Amino acid sequence: QDRLVESGGGSYRTGESLRLSCVVSSGDIITNSVCMGWFRRIPGKEHVAVAGIHRDGTIGYTESVAGRFTISRDNAVNTLYLQMNNLKPEDTGTYYCAAGRQWWRTSCTQLEVWGQGTLVTVSS
Question: Which of 26, 31, 53, 124 is the most buried (most CB within 10 A)?
Fold first, then answer.
């Protein structure tokens, strides 16, 4: 059973918006994780941290999305979100949510649990 399930990807045009969701199916992920985050991967490259949120509410973003993306969580429904506004072609990639054990500067690290990913394609 998948423990993190992302949804909300698709094909969009420059300037449009979308919201990604990540449902956490297991409560122990929330209990045991220090942080969660969204990561983007493009073919042939390592994943890149996009946004993260610490269990205490501290939030961090990579510079390229600051001011356009917003990470949030709804503990009542065990869901992590990524609101993506003013999309750009360079936002294209597969987006994964993950849970980790360490917060480093503005990112969630020591990632232990990953979702299956959702593809976002942005065209000009």
Answer: 53
Tokens standing for 28? 């122990």
Amino acid 1: pLDDT: 63
Structure tokens of 26?
């297991």
Compute the distance between CA of residue 117 and CA of residue 102 in angstroms, rounded to an integer.
Answer: 21
Computed from CA positions of residues 103, 116, 42, 51, in that sequence, does the dihedral angle turn out positive or negative? negative
Mark the ranges of the chain whose per-residue pLDDT is less than 50: none
Tell me how far apart the alpha carbons of residues 58 and 54 are, in angstroms, rounded to a whole number: 5
What's the Cα-to-Cα distance from 55 to each of 1, 3, 48, 94, 123, rounded to whole Å?
Answer: 24, 18, 20, 24, 34
